[in-house]
Write a structure and sequence with these properties.
Family: Belongs to the UDP-glycosyltransferase family.
CATH topology of the largest domain: Rossmann fold
CATH superfamily of the largest domain: Glycogen Phosphorylase B
CATH architecture of the largest domain: 3-Layer(aba) Sandwich
Keywords: Transferase
Shape: globular
Protein name: UDP-glycosyltransferase 83A1
GO molecular function: transferase activity
Order of helices and strands: EHEHEHEHEHHH
Largest sheet: 5 strands, parallel
Number of strands: 5
Oligomer: single chain
Number of helices: 7
Length: 187
């Protein structure tokens, strides 16, 4: 069997791309081949950041697919970005995997998707490819996101993620938004 060919799919934000790229670089050192999928919008900046470095090498191929937004649209509007990605990226990722598997000697054997890109795992499952989730967040944040429903049920947070009891020193809003997005995506 040749080297395993993994497809890495980060959420298109710096705090997501860099950790998955670091994981990919470590996997390359252990003999894996990586295709790293960026959004078209992020691709140019990422390619420039690796120009002249040996970190990527021949075993990490940087590719891109559209994120569903026009060049002029605001990618800081998380709702709009997520809607665009869900509308366009699953089909484009499936097409990319089909193209790679048709033309590359090493077919995609596994998809590693950022926790915010769960749709990529569904594409992999549909295509019969092994898949795994990667979370760039700290473990405490991941646990918090999994427990938001309990915090709501226990009356600590309202449905919008606002504390109902004395002020809490925890930043809930972003994680509640991510939790709602993932909950709605799962249904």
């Amino acid at each position: 069997m040749g080297s395993l060919h993994l497809l890495a799919v980060p959420f298109p934000a710096q705090g997501h791309v860099i950790p998955l790229m670091e994981l990919s670089q470590n996997l390359v050192r252990h003999g894996f081949k990586i295709t790293f999928v960026n959004s078209d919008f992020s691709q140019e900046r990422i390619v420039k950041s690796f120009t002249g470095k040996d970190d990527v090498g021949d075993q990490i191929r940087l590719v891109s697919i559209p994120d569903g937004l026009e060049a002029w649209e605001d990618r800081n509007d998380l709702g709009k970005l997520c809607e665009g990605m869900l509308r366009i990226m699953p089909k484009k990722l499936e097409e990319l995997i089909q193209e790679i598997n048709r033309t590359d000697d090493h077919k995609i054997t596994c998809v590693i998707a950022d926790g915010s890109m769960g749709w990529a795992l569904e594409v992999a499952e549909k295509m019969g490819i092994k898949r795994t989730l990667f979370s760039p967040a700290a473990a405490a944040i991941m646990v918090l996101e999994y427990r938001i429903q309990k915090l709501i049920d226990d009356g600590i947070l309202d449905n919008d993620g606002k504390p109902l009891c004395r002020p809490l020193l925890i930043v809930f809003q972003q994680h509640v938004m991510h939790w709602k997005f993932m909950r709605n995506f799962a249904h």
